[in-house]
Write a structure and sequence with these properties.
This protein has 194 residues and is mainly β. The chain contains no helices and 10 strands. The strands form 2 sheets. Strands 6-5-4-3-10-9-8-7 form an 8-stranded antiparallel beta sheet, with no helix packed on it. The protein has a two-stranded antiparallel sheet with strand order 1-2.
């Protein structure tokens, strides 16, 4: 998944940088076995995705946003491949799937001298899509050429962080914390992908 937020700062005012997907190759269960962890299963192809903003409580967020993703599959397991270790989930019999990722980032380290607490932010991402055109009940994803659904982000300070400095009224990037951003997304296959 990609985000229109600046990943290096979890900013809502910047546009489109690569999402640091949660987990490592080991936690994704793909670190051993001699298979390429970045290319699990079989390719469904490269997809171009267009997102339209439907809600935000985070502040200034792009109304339209486009990116590319590679999709792969192992029968009814879908892999979303974009920049880091793939994320995956099982597609249900009606061709719907929900993929999740999370990441944390230290925005400011603690300073014992000034007695300033650290600020660590967490982001949880959820993409919920339906694949098409597929025969029901779904037993194989090989025919997928499009998908549609939603892509949502939730930003929140971790406990016991002090992240007041991230708020826009004191020069930060967020209108409020915690906050949410939600896009409607549609993807179309644009070609083969390795």
């Amino acid at each position: 998944m990609r985000t229109p937020m600046a990943c290096s700062r979890f900013s809502v005012s910047s546009v489109v940088l690569t999402l640091a997907l949660a987990g490592s190759l080991w936690s994704a269960g793909m670190g051993c076995g001699g298979k390429d962890p970045y290319r699990p299963g079989e390719s469904l192809g490269a997809f171009h995705v267009v997102g339209k903003l439907v809600a935000t409580s985070c502040g200034a967020t792009p109304a339209r946003w486009e990116f590319d993703v590679r999709l792969r599959h192992d029968r009814t397991t879908l892999y979303w491949v974009q920049g880091d270790a793939p994320i995956s989930a099982r597609v249900d019999a009606s061709a719907s799937v929900t993929l999740t990722a999370s990441a944390t980032q230290t925005m400011r380290t603690a300073d014992a001298r000034s007695k300033r607490s650290a600020c660590t932010m967490a982001r949880n991402d959820v993409v919920a899509i339906a694949l098409a055109p597929l025969d029901m009940p779904v037993t194989d994803l090989a025919g997928t050429t499009t998908f549609a659904g939603t892509l949502a982000y939730h930003f929140a300070p971790t406990e016991p962080s002090a992240c007041e400095g991230q708020l826009a009224d004191v020069g930060g990037d967020f209108a409020a914390l915690p906050c949410d951003v939600k896009y409607e997304v549609a993807g179309i296959r644009t070609g083969d992908a390795r």
